[in-house]
Write a structure and sequence with these properties.
117 residues; seven-stranded mixed sheet; 0% helix; four-stranded antiparallel sheet
Length: 117
Amino acid sequence: QVQLVESGGGLVQPGGSLRLSCAASGITSSVYFMGWYRQAPGKQRELVASISNSGSTHYADSMKGRFTISRDNVKETADLQMNSLKPEDTAVYYCNVRYPFAGNDYWGQGTQVTVSS
C-alpha cells in the first residue's frame, strides 16, 4: 500500500517562501509520476506541478516561475519549493503518486498553506 506523508506547510506572509516535502513508501512500480495538487475552500482540487521519473516537469500556468518541483528517486521523495507566495495560493496541498499505466492514484493527507499578512 502506497503511503504519502507531507510536511512543510504553515503560515507565510505574501511574497514569502515555503518548501513542502513528500515522503513516499510502498511504491511498487518502477515508473510513476509524483505531483502536488491543491484545494482551496469551495474550489476543486487542481494540479500544481508534477514530475516524472526522468525529471520532466509540468506546472500549472499560475505557478510557472514561482514554484519548483523536484524529486529524489532513491529516497522516493518529492519537494515543492514555493516562492513569491500570494494570498490566492492559500489551500491544502496534497502529494500525489500516479502509476501511469495502471491508472492508480495515491494521495497524502494534505498540508495547509496559508498566505496572509
